[in-house]
């Protein structure tokens, strides 16, 4: 059993980036414990705790064509996707502009919010609505869904961050085409990057002066640009 003193000494040996990545992981673990405690008290706080609809994949696709709300499909269980906050929408708009300019020439194409990601892994069939993704056009010619994105981005919210950090993270890591999975905070300049080439180890970019590198599409983007109009500029 490691002592508190030994733990403190080990933490002091970490770099700033490693320490902040550890803090982010601990935040996620604390959120998970809180959710379990709330469930034990009978509260329903997770999006997955709603009563889902059940239907076949074909029925889901037909249902989604006429539904005013978006729904995600998890092996026959269909869950409603909540609406976005203004901050969430502003971050998506910033990504849309930056990706659109950067990718206007070439075979990469960005998709945002309303586009389905269809995932087939063995007997699993899953459909998510990522906040943003970038796919290589020749691999994704389907008119309704994207199947082989190189980059997937989710914007964290209080109600869904535990799903983005765990359920979706584990699923996205199983999709061979995905090279990078990115989590973007809404209320502070924090971007967590997970790369296949680095064993999905989280890398934290924080502060408005930081620049996040989307290696899968060859783009570096200042966090100040991602959060422009969402968070106040630094003095």
Tell me what the structure shows.
The protein is α+β, with helices and mostly antiparallel strands. It has a single domain, classed as tt1808, chain A, CATH 3.90.1570. The protein contains six helices and 14 strands. The strands form three sheets. The chain has a six-stranded mixed β-sheet with strand order 1-3-2-6-5-8, with helices on one face. A six-stranded mixed β-sheet has the order 4-7-9-10-11-12, with helices on both faces.
Brief sketch in words of this structure:
The radius of gyration is 19 Å and the shape is globular.
Give the key terms.
about 240 residues; alpha+beta; about 35% helix; tt1808, chain A; 6-stranded mixed β-sheet
Beta-strand percentage? Answer: 25-35%
CATH class: Alpha Beta
Biggest sheet architecture: 6 strands, mixed
Total helical elements: 6
Mean pLDDT across all amino acids: 85
H/E topology pattern: HHEHEEHEEEEEEHEEEEEH
- CATH structural architecture: Alpha-Beta Complex
CATH overall fold name: tt1808, chain A
Structural class: alpha+beta
Q: Write down how many β-strands occur, each being a DSSP E stretch of 2 or more residues.
A: 14
Count the domains.
1
Assign a percent range to the helix content. 25-40%
Present the secondary structure layout:
Elements: H1 4-12, H2 16-40, E1 53-54, H3 57-66, E2 71-74, E3 77-80, H4 86-102, E4 108-112, E5 116-121, E6 124-128, E7 132-136, E8 145-146, E9 149-155, H5 161-173, E10 180-184, E11 190-195, E12 202-206, E13 211-214, E14 219-222, H6 223-226
Parallel strand pairs: 5-8, 9-10
Antiparallel strand pairs: 1-3, 2-3, 2-6, 4-7, 5-6, 7-9, 10-11, 11-12, 13-14
